[in-house]
Amino acid sequence: MSPIEERSDKNTEERIENINDVEYKAVINNPRSRLVPRPSEDEGDPLNWPMRLKILVLFQVCWLAFLGTWNTAAINSAYSLLADELHVSEVEASYQTTIVVALNGVGPFIWIPLANVHGRRFVYLITTFIGFATALGCGFVHSFGALVGVRAINGIFPVSMALGPATVTDLFFYHQRGRALAFCLPETMYYKQRVYSDTNTEPPRLSMAKYRELLRPWTSFPGVELKAKHFVIPAFRMALYPSYCFTAIFPAVTYAIIFKDRFGWSALQCGLAYGGTMTIGSILGEFVAGKIIDGIVHRDSKRLGVDSPPPEVRFKGIWTGATLIPTGLLIFGFTIQYNSHWSGPLAGIFGVQVVATVCYTYSIDSYRVEGSEVSQFFNFCRQSTSCTVAFYGVKLCNAIGFQFAFIMFALVGSVLAFAPIVWLMWKGAWIRERLGRPRDVSVAEEIILNHRELNTVQNRES
């Protein structure tokens, strides 16, 4: 056997996706063998599921992520009404959102390890049910302290923003993840030993019996145990790897106060302005960014003559977002300060949409096995940074002027936050090669190895 074949077989057995080795798969004349990651011949492997089922699962994950974010911010446009009802100031009324934002970043440290052991479906079901129950409970409290307490509990349970990217890596191949980033949602965690075929060119069909099996609310894997070391620590160990450790800082919870003070808008008008422009901008940004990124990957794979190019090629799609961020912030700050027509601030909000698709897909493609830890730490950085804005955002703008405050925000977002991205464009591949694969980080990898060792022992005994 040649060295190339030996290396390909070794990578296949370990099931560790190494982007630098994918070109070796071309030695097998089978289109399925060239896919990254390579699918097995098991109908239960999520990579083999029909595309319509993958899209359905993706839609449900995205819908749950939307509901989690909406649950956090739906009250923002009614701060003035909430303040009058509970006899607090409008800034103090925003604190009940702040506590939810903060705990949105803490909750995944509990749920991700549970998902790795008991399956993604179990965590989606339990967090969705408790999240809805606590959201309903917020409507029955009559004091600000009780509201903050119930909102704090509610903030722990939205999990899709952190678990969603890991679910995407379960379902989609490397070249599909740009566009891809509930109760009929099947289990996507796959711990079985993969069996490959060099002759089958079509994926095995998913039977209804197998699909019903995947709908079990609780999944258990022999030899898989939940340990204390699986919580919190693995995600922070990933912070040592520059290809993964970065975040963006943007204010998100103070627009309702600004619009009410400057334009005298009602809660409905504030909600339509803020929610409408942010929703349209987010949807357009995600669809356009995903399609462009996957197109870039396809073009560069042809140019380089490999199945999958290095993850750094995805950064070519980030420049539009890097331009819109400071532009939108500056438009918002200056038009608010100088009493412009209300369309100016709305155009600014529309522009303040970070194309997070690029950052997520780059980090997960760099460290696919650690996908859960990647999304977990991303979520923590975003939420822990955003939750502080309510304490100083409006006060800072009133003290130094909206134009100067948003100049500062633009500098933070465009210089401090974007500088590491430029460095990764230049040295990303070299950094990954020097640091190697993360060790003792991926809970899923450890669980897979334990599961395989148990199967090996059982096979020998039988």
From TrEMBL:
<dbReference type="InterPro" id="IPR011701">
    <property type="entry name" value="MFS"/>
</dbReference>
<dbReference type="GO" id="GO:0005886">
    <property type="term" value="C:plasma membrane"/>
</dbReference>
<feature type="transmembrane region" description="Helical">
    <location>
        <begin position="239"/>
        <end position="259"/>
    </location>
</feature>
<feature type="transmembrane region" description="Helical">
    <location>
        <begin position="400"/>
        <end position="426"/>
    </location>
</feature>
<keyword id="KW-0812">Transmembrane</keyword>
<feature type="transmembrane region" description="Helical">
    <location>
        <begin position="342"/>
        <end position="362"/>
    </location>
</feature>
<feature type="transmembrane region" description="Helical">
    <location>
        <begin position="318"/>
        <end position="336"/>
    </location>
</feature>
<feature type="transmembrane region" description="Helical">
    <location>
        <begin position="93"/>
        <end position="115"/>
    </location>
</feature>
<dbReference type="Pfam" id="PF07690">
    <property type="entry name" value="MFS_1"/>
</dbReference>
<protein>
    <submittedName>
        <fullName>MFS general substrate transporter</fullName>
    </submittedName>
</protein>
<dbReference type="GO" id="GO:0022857">
    <property type="term" value="F:transmembrane transporter activity"/>
</dbReference>
<feature type="transmembrane region" description="Helical">
    <location>
        <begin position="122"/>
        <end position="144"/>
    </location>
</feature>
<feature type="transmembrane region" description="Helical">
    <location>
        <begin position="55"/>
        <end position="73"/>
    </location>
</feature>
<feature type="transmembrane region" description="Helical">
    <location>
        <begin position="271"/>
        <end position="297"/>
    </location>
</feature>
<keyword id="KW-0472">Membrane</keyword>
<keyword id="KW-1133">Transmembrane helix</keyword>
<dbReference type="InterPro" id="IPR036259">
    <property type="entry name" value="MFS_trans_sf"/>
</dbReference>
